[in-house]
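User
New here, help please:
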Amino acid sequence: MSQHLVTLPILIPMIGALALLLFNQASDTRRRQLSTALCVAQVLVAAWLLAVAGGGQMLFYALGNWHAPFGIVLMLDRLSALMLILTAVLALGSVLFACAGEDARGTNFHGLFQLQLMGLNGAFLTGDMFNLFVFFEITLLASYALMMHGGGKERIGAGLHYVILNLAGSALFIVALGVLYGATGTLNMADMARRVAQMSGDQTALVTAGALLLIVVFSLKAALLPLYFWLPRTYAAAPAPVAALFAIMTKLGLYAILRVQSLIFADTPVAEAIIAWLWWAGLATIALAAVGVLAARDLRTLVAYLVLVSVGTLMAGTALGSIEAIGALLYYLPHTTLICGALYLIAEMIGQQRGKAGTRLVRARRLYQRHLLGGMFLVAAVAVAGLPPLAGALGKALLMQAAEGTARLWLWPLLLLAGLCALVAMSRAGSVFFWASYKGEVDSGRVSRPQLAGVLWLLASAPLLVAFAGPVSGYAQATAEQLAEPQAVIARVLGESPALQFGQLTIEGESP
């Protein structure tokens, strides 16, 4: 049975979602226990896959014993293993927080939550463009329902906006796949990469059009300027544990761009066009999102703009293109994702204790547990602003070092200014919440144990990424080196490597 373990990140949430949706009459306690157990199992499986990938091994699994490029191939390398563990860790913190009562404000929360995890994990594992589209849609369908969980005028309005934009993005996605399939005759990533490299003339122009359309779709998913205007309102209106999980959704767009750029369109004229787009759009996203951080009058909106700052930073790092830059952004990626997720949960706890003022940056009631919440808020604020000694500072330093000596030093001032804007905005928010409140104590909204466990689980990443900075940055650099060698992946997926046997899992070592 060990050869089938690579399918578990998809099977666990899929079976769990079916069970939770079919037996939705079970008690809240039973559903919470099952959902938490499923998330714990996914963390353990993802950790095992990370250990395998970290040893320099690549995992392939051909479903139904159908050989590539005709069958569905699951592919696990260092990048997909990193995304799986990041998703699992974020999901566990979010579901623990939801078990405090947020899940009971609507129906089928836990089933939809597991369905979204299935879509995310499948997107990170698939080696086929059409199945990437399928898993994107599974993720989006679940996110539509989760976004409107609990109802409310503001939430439904933002959710409708989110649905319409993403439906348009999905339509463009299928059009782009049709163009690429018409030009190449395949949708398997490795086979498409082999055929694209052999094309010339009109076929190249058609592939370029399809590729750029794909990048537009992924930029919409990642919320890259000018396609980011949907995100602040949507994330600010979403339920706190849903917004925390949504922190990985923008990174799904980043993953898709990294995957197609490094595997399918590497060393082609298309890659140059992609890099130019990502560079200027990434810088513009950083600049305008930093302005949004300063202008925000609600903590939830502020965190949404901080997510956009991280998106712009990651995309600009992708555009640098070097192994050092990709390694730096992959080190920065877990930090920014988990801390932004934790901030959404902290904002919810603050809002619960401030009465009608909620998370708006206005003077209101004193917080009942201001010392506890203030400590967690301080750690998250230092981390998200990129201040030493936490991992955000190291990640940004690595990115700036990767840009040194190139013609792209615009990244330096923008990263520093964005960090300053985040520091000013978080300082202002902290002053309002913990010092400027004056209307006496509140006697409700006490932080529950599940809420505290979920937040601390995510905040623990801040010191851990510093304590283990050497191994984590080493893994990130090795991942960047692996992405820089697409021919090895192509040969193995297409069966040109003698070690690859279809119909079962094959583990082949390579030098780390």
